[in-house]
Design brief:
742 residues, Alpha-Beta Plaits, 11 strands, 63% helix, elongated
Length: 742
């Protein structure tokens, strides 16, 4: 592989105009496609194979006029001073608002609170349910403004009016912190390279790659039914890996120049060596993201594949566009002092260089490996303790900031009708094979009413054919309570007996039931997902490092860092530690999809640093250095760049903490803290300590396995032999097809 990538790098260097033009043309094409594509109108969420989804599909099929996918709003009314809202001028004001709500162009129906008996027992709170013909993302600004105006007219009449539901849902605001993150990346690159040109190249190429990826996602969003957060997550991951991959190629190119190589040869060698690490690091990320498909939640699968596509683009850009751009920059990627130093070295001979911080740290770890290992493991273990209290859930209006109208409506409904009112259970009853559907519904309703934690069961609403009905169950407990979860299981546990008695099939759905099903599905998929991703990556790293223990150590280190990151997420977003500092206005359960998505991304990124850092150690070892000295060599050449790459990735991820969407905010914080733990504790401390204790055993591989595994020459050993043979002349030439066995 190294030989192929060497040729690719030299080709891109020589044909830099054509390569650069091709990438710019792709960027423009993607932008045009995004601009001309229709806006994504769906943020659908489905969980195939679960009872909640089956019930939802049944209702959509049997109640075609119910606008099951349509947006909804709950307009909540209260009057000042505890006055009743169902008498006098308060009632007249409510009726005026309801009348105005019905005039909306895309409104399907409005349930009058007095006709639907949506008034609290004390008469102080009422609500009107508004259904729309289209999904929330399809609502126009005029529709939302009409809803807000109606509520404002009620406030002008002396009422307290708040709006809940998804009708006011809008695209998330990302905040200016992303710009700050990119700015920090630029400063880190400038400090690392000491050259504006070298610092600008990774940023430029990463932005081109992210532009192509995000524009392509936007262009295909409506066709592929991609959610609103898909492009944001793709941007987050693509920007981070794009800068890092470019950083490693540029860094290796600079190193080759300081060794006296010609720019074209330096570009080829940089792509042939660091490029090989980029390929395999990228493959681990792709495996982790594409592996999310095993969970069988379409939204999660699409998010993973979209992010994987952006990572693939980042890899291709690192292998082709970076050497092409280096062809324009050449020696200008080196700072002036370095260029003058090279000239001075050529004239007077180079002096011994002072050991850098990476060298000094590696030597310290080699002297105290047990202490470093114990401190690193115990420190991350302590941070991981809150992960034992992890609670999963899906966001609802109760998780909104307390300043929003959605949260105020949620609290008003909870105070007026009870905590379970915000998490009602929808019961879909398929009575097509029942002899007496109405009698069957009476039996089902009476059975559910007698269950614990049931406050109210509404009258069943039949479809036109009379073979299917819906009824609503209001629990006594809050939506996220264990009692409500127990009620869902109790109703489902009675379904088989009810079917044998009435002939009707009882299915439980609704947001609360779907939340329970998603959490269960994700819990069930976690171990298979980890086994698949870790297993495939283990095999991949075994091919890269030709070792059994190094990949095993890499996987265990990942588990340590990701559990510690989950502990930090729980401490901030669930327990509320430092929440105000990070702009977290409302704590609560962690989003159900967040942990497994974070695990996939962090695993891929953790393997990035493993590949980049340990490959340099492996390269030194196969060229004859002792195991301890190989560790020092790896840190001498790689620690500064890996540290810079980690700081860049942390700053990019941290930039998304300013997002208004809880999933993005959690992901930004979780990924940033996970990269910090993995890069600076696991890869910089635990890894060299373990390698120091293992010695030569770290690079052990059974002979039979050595014969079976393909040798991809990541270290560039065969490439070095070929180049040396070419330099020696025809007599010493080595055929390109010679076996590349370490």
């Amino acid at each position: 592989m190294a030989t192929f990538l060497y040729k690719l790098g030299r080709f891109a260097f020589r044909r830099r105009l054509y390569v650069a033009f091709a990438w710019v043309a792709l960027l423009l094409l993607a932008i045009v496609g995004a601009a001309s594509a229709s806006k994504s109108t769906s943020d659908s969420f489905s969980i195939p194979g679960t009872e909640a989804q089956k019930a939802f599909d049944l209702m959509e099929q049997r109640f075609p006029d119910a606008s099951a996918n349509g947006a909804s709003a709950r307009v909540v009314f209260t009057s000042p001073g505890g006055q009743k809202v169902d008498v006098g001028k308060q009632k007249a004001a409510v009726e005026d608002v309801v009348k105005e709500l019905k005039s909306g162009k895309q409104v399907s129906s409005v349930a009058d609170p007095y006709e639907s008996k949506a008034v609290s027992d004390k008469g102080t709170t009422a609500y009107a349910s508004v259904k729309y013909k289209v999904a929330s993302m399809e609502l126009t600004d005029a529709d939302r403004e009409a809803l807000k105006d109606a509520a404002q007219h009620g406030r002008d009449a002396g009422l307290t009016v708040e709006i809940g539901g998804d009708a006011l849902q809008a695209m998330p605001e990302e905040g200016a912190s992303q710009i700050i993150g990119i700015g920090i990346s630029a400063v880190v690159l400038l400090v690392t390279f000491g050259s504006l040109v070298a610092a600008g190249l990774p940023l430029l190429t990463a932005l081109i790659g992210v532009g192509i990826g995000v524009s392509s996602i936007t262009a295909l969003a409506n066709v592929l039914d991609l959610g609103s957060s898909t492009s944001t997550l793709a941007m987050m991951i693509g920007l981070a890996v794009g800068i890092d991959y470019a950083l490693f190629i540029v860094s290796r190119f600079r190193h080759e120049l300081t060794e006296g190589r010609e720019p074209e040869d330096a570009a080829g060698r940089a792509v042939g060596t660091a490029g090989s690490a980029v390929v395999f690091a990228g493959l681990t990320v792709l495996i982790a993201l594409a592996g999310l498909a095993v969970v069988n939640i379409p939204m999660l699968t699409k998010m993973g594949l979209a992010a994987a596509g952006t990572v693939a683009i980042a890899v291709l850009i690192a292998l082709t566009l970076i050497p092409a751009v280096l062809g324009f920059a050449k020696h200008r990627v080196l700072g002036r002092k370095v260029r003058k130093g090279l000239k001075a070295d050529t004239d007077t001979g180079s002096a011994a260089k002072k050991p850098n911080m990476g060298t000094r740290w590696a030597r310290f770890v080699l002297r105290r490996p047990i202490w470093v290992l114990v401190v690193g493991v115990l420190g991350l273990g302590a941070i991981a303790i809150p992960a034992a209290s992890l609670e999963l859930g899906l966001p609802d209006d109760g998780s909104q900031p307390v300043s929003t109208t959605q949260r105020k409506a949620y609290d008003l409904l909870s105070d007026g009708f009870g905590p379970g009112f915000n998490g009602p259970l929808m019961i879909a009853v398929d009575a097509a094979h029942s002899k007496d559907p109405k009698a069957a519904l009476d039996t089902i309703s009476q059975t559910i009413t007698k269950m614990d934690d049931v406050k109210k069961v509404t009258e069943p609403a039949f479809n036109k054919a009379g073979d299917t009905a819906m009824l609503t169950v209001v629990p006594k407990s809050k939506p996220s309570g264990l009692e409500t979860e127990g009620l869902v299981h109790d109703i489902r546990g009675q379904a088989a007996g009810l079917k044998s008695e009435t002939g009707a099939v009882t299915l439980v759905t609704g947001t609360t039931a779907m939340n329970i099903d998603v959490s269960q599905k994700l819990n069930d998929a976690l171990l298979p997902y980890l086994a698949l991703v870790v297993g495939l990556a283990f095999l991949l790293l075994m091919v890269v490092f030709r070792s059994v223990l190094v990949p095993l150590k890499a996987a265990l280190g990942f588990l340590l860092s990701v559990v510690a990151a989950l502990g930090a997420v729980v401490a901030v977003f669930q327990w509320g530690w430092l929440a105000s500092l990070l702009g977290v206005e409302q704590t609560g359960p962690i989003m159900s999809m967040m942990p497994i998505f974070m695990i996939g991304v962090v695993f891929g990124l953790a393997m990035d640093y493993e590949v980049f850092l340990v490959t340099r150690m492996r390269e030194a070892y196969v060229h004859g250095e002792r195991p301890g000295q190989a560790i020092v060599t790896g840190f001498t050449h790689g620690a500064r760049v890996v540290a810079a790459a980690a700081v860049i990735m942390i700053s990019v991820f941290a930039g998304f903490i300013g997002s208004s969407e809880s999933m993005i905010k959690m992901m930004g914080f979780g990924l940033a803290i996970a990269v910090a733990f993995d890069a600076f504790v696991v890869r910089m401390a635990v890894v060299p300590a373990v390698l120091a204790l293992l010695g030569k055993a770290a690079w052990w591989l059974p002979r039979w396995l050595d014969r079976v595994l393909p040798n991809v020459d990541v270290e560039g050993e065969q490439l070095q032999k070929n180049l040396a043979a070419q330099a020696a002349g025809p007599a010493g030439a080595v055929p390109e097809r010679a076996p590349s066995r370490v």
